[in-house]
């Protein structure tokens, strides 16, 4: 299956996965049966993010299958976290474009050609994403549409538009296409937001590279012709998971706002973020005080505001740790 081809690769489909042995066969079949790609030169790259199941054996089986004359490569990224998997994917991809798909985000039959054609039509686009629909194992809770974007459900209509990156209105990392040039020119090799701290889930690792790309002068677009279907199991509607997700999405807010901010402005951003979200937390808690214990969506939003309020403390901890690390390194060199 890994047939050598001399032509330049147009686009790489990159699938970061963790313990995906059951999910990978489904998404691989859907990718391998994409339509309209006869004139494309493309490849599939699976990034195994330190799985402990039979992910490698699943990929080996597909690599030995000669039915699909398409390069399928496997890369192990032992450092846990989606941010590291994406960095490895861009580094290893041979395509000018890298089309990310999470292993639980299933593409429509024309997803790949729609992604590729959009890149040709909008040469200033550094990244673009499309419609992400929910495929739910159980019925979502009432008023779920208020928080569905936090679970990477994005249905913004049938017209292309530019995302408002300055106000952190950006697409998720699932089903995202990036232009490799835009990434290499702007995204640091070491991310700040890596998904997890000890005992704490911190989101934002998919927004961080997009902000670097945006501030580098590239555009971030919505392409309504790209459709994927996010598989949402019932456990994602459990209270503790949703509260953890909301908290993690809030905790990254300050750090994202500090990207491309002048040093003298950073204390102001931190103070503004803390005080602004403290005000929102108090106002929201008072307005919805009768629902605080009974309404799942209210619990989610309260936790998001609480995480956002605490996000400057997380940012301050990062800068102190980074400063001390550099100081100790300098002293070590001098000694």
UniProtKB/TrEMBL annotation:
CDD domains in alphabetical order: Glyco_tranf_GTA_type
GO molecular function annotations of the record? hexosyltransferase activity
Keywords (A to Z) from UniProt: Transferase
Q: Which InterPro entries match?
A: Glyco_trans_2-like, Nucleotide-diphossugar_trans
Which Pfam family is an annotated match for this chain, by its short name?
Glycos_transf_2
The Glycosyltransferase 2-like domain sits at: 12-138
Highest taxon in the source lineage: Bacteria
The name under which this protein is listed is: Glycosyl transferase
